[in-house]
Amino acid sequence: MVDFLQFLVAGLSQGAIYALVGLGFSVIYRATHIVNFAQGEFVMIGGLGTAGALSFALPMPLAILSALVAGCVAALVLDLIVIRLARFAPALLLIIVTIGASVALRGAAQLAWGRNFHSIPSPFGSEPLHVYGVAIMPQVILILVTTVGAVVGLQWFFRRTRFGQAMLAAAINPTAASLVGIELRHVYTATFLIAGLLGMIAGLLITPLAMVHFESGLAFSLKGFAAAILGGLGSVPGVVAGGLLLGVVESLSAGYVSSAYKDAIAFLLIIVVLLTRPEGVFGRRSTGRV
Amino acid sequence: MSGLSINDLKVHFGGIRALDGVDLTFGSSGIHALIGPNGAGKTTLVNAVTGVYAPTAGRVLFDGHDITGLPAHKLATLGVTRTFQNLQIFWTMSVLENVLAGFHLDSSAGFLRGLLRGPALVRRERELTTAALGLLRLVNLEAKANNPADALAYGELKRLEIARALAGRPKLLFLDEPVAGCTQSEKCDLAEVIRNAARESAVSVVLIEHDMRLVMAVSDRVTVLAQGRILSTGTPSEVRADPKVITAYLGTTQSHLAEQVHAVAG
Amino acid sequence: MSIINRSLAVLGLVLVTCGATQAQTSKPIKVGVFVAVTGPGSFLGDASKKTFELYTQQFNKNGGVDGRQIELVLYDSKTNPKEAASLARKLIDQDQVDVLIGANTTGEAMAVVPFVEEANIPFIALAGGSVVVDPVKKWVFKTPHTDQMSVEKIYAQLRKEKRSKVALLSGAAGYDQSCRKNAKELSARLGIDIVSDEQHGSGDTDVTTQLTKIRGSGADALIYCGAGAPSALVARNYKQLGLTLPLYMTVGVASQAYIEAAGPAAEGSRVTGSAILAFADMMQDDPIYNVSRSLHDGYVASYKEEPSAFSGYAYDALLLTVEALRRAGTTDKAKVRDALEGLKNIPGVNGIYNFSATDHLGFSADSMWIVEVKDGRYRKVD
Fold first, then answer.
1. What is the pTM of this model?
2. Are A41 and A73 in contact (CB under 8 A)?
3. B262 with B177, same domain?
4. Which residue stretches of chain A have pLDDT < 70?
5. Domain C148-273: what homologous superfamily?
6. Which of C168, C196, C208 to mutate to test the interface with A (most CBs of A within 10 A)?
7. For position C39, what pLDDT does the model report?
């Protein structure tokens, strides 16, 4: 039982990170129908940028801020490249462009922060809490709380703010949205900024536990994308559930089946889901009419 | 001056002169129909005025502003909007939410609606909902306000588009072949809706239409386009009596499908 | 006046230039190097590159090889076997190097071997996998300790401590899997029982699940078969779960970078590697003391950091190359190869090299140390 709970804790904290990265995929996909494979690079920028700034003896809040600024600049550049091209290019080409952008961001990160792995201290230290024999890092609690906060915040933004509603409307029907006066250009820029922020939050959360280096983004992209399609690319609660499910399935298959095949089992699950429910476990079937 | 004025508007696609020097004004009220045989350039005209195409030459002025080539969201802020032949609906929203989205430009709705859910905001939200329901009543959809949009019939969706367009308080509304997809028997009940909209919302309506019965029933003025030029302008009865118009319409037996194909091809 | 003066000046310049050319009758010896400066193996390649650059310079300052300078041609193989193979061809065909050194990872080394065999050029690999020189390949030598030696060394230590139940945790990389395979194969012969065999993926950011299973397996020692940064993750998760069984790491971890990355979590973990890891604990009568000191002091002075076992591999490769060239007295590739194979009792940073026709590694696990992290430094374990 203790082992099971320990597996669960590991799965949920990993899954929460997958969920945050997956939400970034989801937000951009909904608005632009582009799968942004540079999404994981924001995780890397969030972690490495903060670690890099800390090495210049900046206080933590400033270090985080400088990483966020760097990531937002990257998001804006990505938006500029992708959306400038979007007026002419087919979606497949744009997806390839995002892969190219991720390579470029990795290169830039290597120049800026070197090739080494870096970590940042957790605000709650490195001593675990013991709950009924289960070791829980305080950082894990922070990860879960922040993820819940980010999801609630995102939902609030889309449901209750005028700009969020405009983004939602633009995602549903861009032509209709511009007819009611919504400027799509702004919507796309905001989309990339939000996706970037979600990725960077994930990076800030995971770096105190794990370590990141300039090539860490790729693995996060893969897992985040898997979480997003598992839950249904278009739905916020779906992606969160998909991320948590992926994390827990990975952890439990490592714990009870074989740690050698945990990734294989997780990806098998995704293939089964795609074959039986292409819109994701929690996604709504698309209801477009022409 | 108020209203829309189109000066020497030309749209050429390669060697094809889709619009070949059109001068036209639409007043600030009433219903003005734009008719003509297939390929006359009606939809091209609307597309060129509403920023879908960049005109090859010419200028478009609205209330004294040069709006030539402005994108749709800028036109919306100036009070010019349109519907498309294809439905443009927020499919996953409810009927009421579709209309509420039309209030986007209503600045009093605030950037961070609901950030502080004070009494003023609650009241404001209630007012917008009341206004939206009023618009739905105008288009005979009040009873379906809380239905999902994708549960409506085609004719109802066309009316929903009109209600949403009116939510933005436009001064000028282009309706591009609103009854094109409706069945013969009902014609989507649009005649009365368009008449009521023009009267109660004080909007000037430009109706691009094939269906002569609808045009003759609702229009205050009619302009006939043929081969990218204006053939005739006047009251419905004047135009109907114009020999040039009769000649242009003789032998135009193209099917509705051909018209659609042509419209899509531009 | 000026014309005469200028003419004289030009004449003088010409003479000086001729003289300079005259002095270098023998052109430099070209040593071709490809190391993983970037990519997942960069923690190895970076130390290698620094060592090559520093000590080529130093060997040249000390007169090179009988007066001939060494010219270093160094490329980044990006930890990519394909890249390594094409760089090896470039070094052989275009740069026409006399000796080839490189390949921080086993995959890169094995990708290069066919070209080396075909071109008949001596090649000293910097990769750990025993497969590189086992079976012996005529033109291929290597300097690093193997993963197999690490495992042997750890098993010997465990038996000394009367421990016999081992849990393995391995990553997905080539080195990790080779180490895991060797650990399983050697266990029966050395009286060790593998009670748990866990693995993690290459991008994983958490291994608490695997460690939880190991905790429940009854193992009395944990060996991590892996290299580079994931080892710091293992150390951290190990501390978080409060595991008490001793944690052993192999030579893939043997650098200061591990302690820096894992921080306090590294305390108490044990690492196998070259004696230079705990240079402070080396005895002056150790036959490899002097050569270790030469690397240690020079490296610290130039780079302000401790040399790792990986610096040692590069240093030894360079040292053996210079020694073989000196003995061969020529850059004739076959003669240099023969000279390499004939090297006996050469003290290097990793051990005393005794190459032979049947042994292109030249030393045994005895030359390895087990060190333990104490107060942020490696200390020798007896």
1. 0.83
2. no
3. yes
4. 86-87, 283-290
5. Response regulator (3.40.50.2300)
6. C208
7. 75
User: What pLDDT is attached to residue C18?
Assistant: 43
Q: C199 vs A117: CB contact, 8 Å cut-off? A: no
- What Cα–Cα distance (Å) separates residue A60 from each residue in A50, A109, A118, B2, B214? 8, 20, 15, 59, 69
Contact A259 C232 (CB under 8 A): no
Domain total in chain B: 2
For A107-134, write each residue's pLDDT tens digit. Answer: 999 889 887 788 898 888 888 999 888 9
Percent of chain B exceeding pLDDT 90 equals 45
Range(s) within chain C of domains with CATH label 3.40.50.2300: 26-145+288-365, 148-273
pLDDT for B108 beyond 60: no
Write down the pLDDT at residue A144: 96
- Residue A122 contacts C where some CB pair is shorter than 8 Å: no
Same domain for B75 and B194, yes or no, is yes
Residue corresponding to tokens 């010219």: C71
For A160, the closest of B82, B114, B150 (CB atoms) is B114
- Return the pLDDT at B256: 44
B224: domain range?
Answer: 1-79+172-266
Tell me which chain A residues have a C-beta less than 8 angstroms from the C-beta of B181.
Answer: none
pLDDT digits (tens, 9 = 90+) for B110-128: 544 545 556 777 787 888 8
Does the pLDDT of residue C56 top 70, yes or no? yes
Distance in angstroms (rounded) separating the CA atoms of residues B154 and B139: 13
From the CA of A163, how many Å to the nearest CA of chain C? 36
Structural class in CATH, domain A2-276? mainly alpha
**Residue B185 pLDDT exceeds 90:** no
pLDDT for position B179: 83
Question: Which one of A180, A184, A290 has the shortest CB-CB distance to B86?
Answer: A290
Chains with 3+ CB–CB pairs under 8 A to A are B, C
Whether residue C193 is predicted with pLDDT greater than 60 in this model: the reply is yes
With pLDDT > 90 as the criterion, what percentage of chain A qualifies? 59
Would you state the pLDDT for residue B255?
42
Option in A156, A166, A178 nearest B72 (CB): A178
Does the beta carbon of A258 lie under 8 angstroms from any beta carbon of chain B?
A: no
Residue C248: predicted pLDDT: 97
* pLDDT score, position C350: 92
From B89, B111, B114, residue closest to A176, measured CB to CB: B89
Fold of C26-145+288-365: Rossmann fold (3.40.50)
**A residues 16-35 closer than 8 Å to C (CB):** 17
Across the interface, whether the CB atoms of C229 and A251 are under 8 A apart is answered no
Cis peptide before A123 (omega within 30 of 0): no
Distance from CA of A166 to the nearest CA of B (A): 7
